[in-house]
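hey m, so remember when u said the C-alpha cells were messed up on ur end? i reran from scratch. heres the input so u can diff it against urs
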Amino acid sequence: MSMIRKPVGPQPAAVYWRRRIIVLLGLVAVIAVVVLIIVRPGASQGAQPDETGTPVATTATDAPATALPTEEAAVDGDPCAPEHIVVEPVTDATTYAAGELPELAVTLTNTGPNVCVLNAGTAAQVFTITSGDEVYWTSTDCQVDPIDAEVSLTPGEPLSSAAPIVWNRTRSDPDTCDDDSREPVPAGGASYHLSVSVDGFDSSATKQLLLY
C-alpha cells in the first residue's frame, strides 16, 4: 500500500503519478468501449430516433407507399381497339362470268367485351383489288361524296355494309375518273383478291374472286 501512496524510484514521484493516471484513463476508456458494444443504446430493433433523439418504433405504414400501375378498364362507348376488331372482305360471288360486275362489301365484328365506336363511313373505307403484287383498283381513286359515319359495334354482332360497291372490272386511276373508255382488266379466269380497311383497321385476310 505504501507503493501506491508514494511511488519510489530513481525519478521524481510526479513522473510515476502521471504514468499511473495515463494507465488508469486507458483502462476506463477500454471499459467504456466494451459497455457501448454490449449495451448499444438506441439500437433496439425497428427503432429510429425522432427529432428529440428518442427512439421511435417504425411500422410497415411508415415506409413510403409504392403506387402499382393499374390498367384502366374499357367501358361502353370507348373507341374500338385494333385487337378487338375483325374486318372481313365480302363479295356477292366468287366467280363472275363475262359482263358480271362484282359487288364488294365489308363486315365488321367486335370481339371485345364492350360496345365500341369507330368511323364506318365511306370516307373511312378503302377497298383494294390486287392480283399478285399488282394493285388494279382502289375505291378511293374515284370516290364521290365520301361521308363519315360513327357506328357502335356490339360484341359478337357483325355489322355489314348497307350498300355494296360495284367494281366495273377496270383499272382505277385518279386521272381517268371521267373517262368511260378505260379498258377492262384481264379476265378469262384471272384471279383477283379483295382487301378492305375501315377507319384504319385492316382485314387480316383477302377474299378471292375469279373473272371470266
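this time it looks ok to me. Residues 2-57 form one domain. if urs says something different then somethings off w ur setup not the seq
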